[in-house]
Design goal:
By secondary structure, the chain is of the alpha+beta class. The protein has 2 helices and 5 strands. It has one domain. Strands 1-2-3 form a 3-stranded antiparallel sheet. A two-stranded antiparallel sheet has the order 4-5. β4 and β5 form a beta hairpin. It starts with a strand and ends in a 10-residue tail after the last strand.
Amino acid sequence: MKNLSPRHVQMEEARRLGVPAGWYSTKISGTFVSGPHASEADCLLKIAQMNARPSTTVANGEEVAAVAPLDEGQTG
C-alpha cells in the first residue's frame, strides 16, 4: 500500500464520522485504511509495516509470499 499519510481525527470530527478519535492512516482520497492509533508515531509505524515488501520463500520450487498476521485489535 503506497501513498498513505497519518491524519489526526479530533473528537468533534470523530463524532460526526461515527468513529473513535485518534490517528488514522489515510489514502490520498481521505479513505481511512487503519486506526485509530494512539499516537502519530504508532500510525507511522503501521504505515511503514503496510508499505514493507512481503518476504518471499520458495515452496516446491515456486516463490510464495509470506504474509505476517495483523496485530490483534488492529484493522487494516
